[in-house]
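check this one:
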Amino acid sequence: MKMPILIHPDPRLKKVCTPVGDLSDALRRLADDMLETMYDAPGIGLAAPQVGVTERLIVLDCVKEEGQAPRPTIMFNPEITARSEATNVYEEGCLSIPDQFAEITRPAEVELRWIDRDGNEQSAGFDGLWATCVQHEIDHLDGKLFIDYLGPMKRQLITRRMQKLKRDKARA
């Protein structure tokens, strides 16, 4: 089921999420619904707070090449266990901040630990776009947006644009 995505500024996007305890069928359904919402948007990542749920859950799929099989990834309680000193710069966007982009510098590689959809602990390394995306989504779980990495003037400009977008949508 497709879910509405919260638009910045919304106080729920700034909340630190609580760890997921036992995996329930409801949480698995939420993860599936989040994947459907992400693909429909279209996006490459989505965090639970973006759909109004303050639990530590992210979904992502950074396969963008034509003809390559999708790799939908569901992570409960994702945790970065190591970061490279080397960095990458990517132009990031966010489904909660539509049509706004900025170059953000992050570690080029990260090691992660998480619980998969079946309740099994997983760990893996990520690089390139996958590393950027997973860090961006984990930031959401900690109440942080990509615009928080920008200077105050640029951040305020984007926030004002989002406030206008929300007003315009409310009138429509």
The helical segments are 25-40, 128-141, 152-171. The chain has a mean pLDDT of 96. The chain has one domain: 11-171. The first strand starts at residue 45 and ends at 47.
